[in-house]
Amino acid sequence: MNRRPHYHKLRHYFMVIAASFAMITLSACSQITGVREGVVDSTEEPSLTLVPTFSDAIPSPTQVSQQEGDEPETTGDQEPNTNPSLPEQTNRLAIDCEPPADLTPSMTEGPFYKTGSPQRISLVDDDVTGSRLNLSGFVLTSDCQPVAGVLLDFWQADGLGNYDNSGYRLRGHQYTDENGRYYLETVVPGVYPGRTPHIHVRVQSPEGSLLITQIFFPDEPSNLTDRIFSPQLVITITEQSVDILKGEFNFVIPVG
Ligand code: FE
């Protein structure tokens, strides 16, 4: 009996089976390799992200700030004519102005102005005496348009009525932001002989106009006896507590 044809048939079946097995193995390997490299066929379901991107893994500086609730940091070496980002309090400011607005009256400069004050929005150092005051507002034109880049140079007495004439305590300058806003952290100044509580300020526009004036506080008994007090220069109190007084004042300046 000749068994060779039967042997050839068996060998043929075996080769077909072996070839099929090899193809299945190759196909499976190529899929595994695709997963490891993060290769996603565009025809697959789009919901599967295999490898995180850098933008997913590393939060942006903005995200970090929001997560930690940080206030933007201020540094001493800012570019001139710019302020650090103003705090949340100023975001709620609304321009209370009816054109044509009266220009803010000027006032005597007094004997205690010093050039060269540091650029800063907070005048509150550890050794400053007085109740905390946060003052904010706009610099506007008489058309009620905010003016950006206006220099505001503040100086004042401390809570006991004393000026620092040897250093720069309670002295500082800043610039209005792109929305014409300013923000000052300081203390409520005390009275000194002949004067009711007041804060001095020089307001200089980018075009060069200069307003020198003083701002005052409402309901101060000594307002009645201060010969240069002006009710037009009184701040509006927006919040008052044991810890802090918050107020607003807008300066209206000529442009040019
Ligand atoms: Fe003064």
Observed structural traits:
four-stranded antiparallel beta sheet, globular, five-stranded mixed beta sheet, Protocatechuate 3,4-Dioxygenase, subunit A, 256 residues, alpha+beta
Tell me what the structure shows.
Helices cover 19% and strands 21% of the residues. The protein is globular. It has helices at residues 4-36, 54-57, 61-68, 88-91, and strands spanning 132-140, 151-156, 171-175, 181-187, 198-204, 210-216, 236-240, 244-248, 251-252. The protein has a domain at 82-252: Aromatic compound dioxygenase (Protocatechuate 3,4-Dioxygenase, subunit A), CATH 2.60.130. The strands form 2 sheets. Strands 1, 4, 7, 8 and 9 form a 5-stranded mixed beta sheet that branches. It is of the alpha+beta class. It is built from 4 helices and 9 strands. The model is unreliable at 21-79 (pLDDT under 50). Fe (iii) ion (FE) binds next to strand 5.
